[in-house]
Design brief:
Elements lengths: L4 H11 L10 H18 L5 E7 L2 E6 L4 E10 L7 E2 L2 H7 L14 E4 L6 E9 L3 E8 L18 H15 L5 H15 L21
Parallel strand pairs: 4-5
Antiparallel strand pairs: 1-7, 2-6, 3-7, 5-6
Helix pairs in contact: 1-2, 1-4, 2-4, 4-5
């Protein structure tokens, strides 16, 4: 069954022992659940994905839409339907130091990602600014404003979202010991999604081929 915001908010309220909304308003907790979703997607960019055509700018360096967190795949060009394949940028540099100065074209043949800059990617040949490619990318969830708003994550992430929301709530508290609770709920959320440290998990696409003709 699809989750709605109240499913998470009710669990958070119960654990905070604030069933009568004395300390936290619905708006407060909806903000924490929104933060929880963004935290989840930062740690696990494939938790919520979008597939959309992305218009190219002239040149090699391209960017995801504003809600993009990490590029996961590029499958084809929009107009020609020609496939695009992931390539190794180091190999491109080694084979041709001037590949970024090649003639600009409409179609993307290959693309390369760098996990250190996951919101951007390079294409080859350089695009003429008129191309568009079908991309799969990890996205930030929309902000929650009402208890009836849909949760964009599958229900298997319910506990992780609850844990991350509690992490944010306890971080806002000023009473002694709340920071420890905040860190414990952060650890609980990370464990729930299979992450053992606070470092962002990189969903780095695997290089399978060189761009072909």
């Amino acid at each position: 069954m699809a989750l709605v915001a109240s499913d998470i908010v009710d669990d958070v309220r119960s654990i905070l022992v604030d069933d009568d909304s004395t300390e936290w308003s619905d708006a407060d907790l909806l903000g924490f659940v929104t933060d929880a979703g963004r935290l989840l997607s930062n740690f696990k960019p494939d938790a919520y994905t979008k597939r959309a055509f992305i218009p190219m700018v002239a040149g090699t360096n391209q960017a995801l839409p504003t809600d993009g967190i990490a590029i996961l795949d590029i499958s084809q060009n929009e107009v020609s339907k020609r496939s695009a394949v992931i390539v190794d940028k180091e190999l491109l540099d080694a084979e041709n130091r001037f590949w970024q100065a090649a003639t600009e074209e409409l179609d993307v043949q290959g693309w390369a990602a760098d996990p250190r800059d996951p919101r951007r990617f390079d294409v080859t040949p350089p695009n003429n600014g008129n191309g568009s490619v079908l991309a799969l990318y990890g996205a930030a969830p929309p902000a929650l404003t009402t208890l009836a708003d849909a949760i964009v994550y599958v229900d298997t992430y319910k506990y992780a979202l609850t844990a991350f929301a509690l992490h944010r709530a306890y971080a806002k508290q000023s009473r002694k010991g709340d920071n420890a609770k905040s860190q414990q709920w952060l650890a609980n959320g990370l464990q729930a999604v299979g992450i053992k440290s606070g470092a962002q998990v990189q969903v780095a696409p695997k290089v399978t081929a060189n761009p072909g003709q």
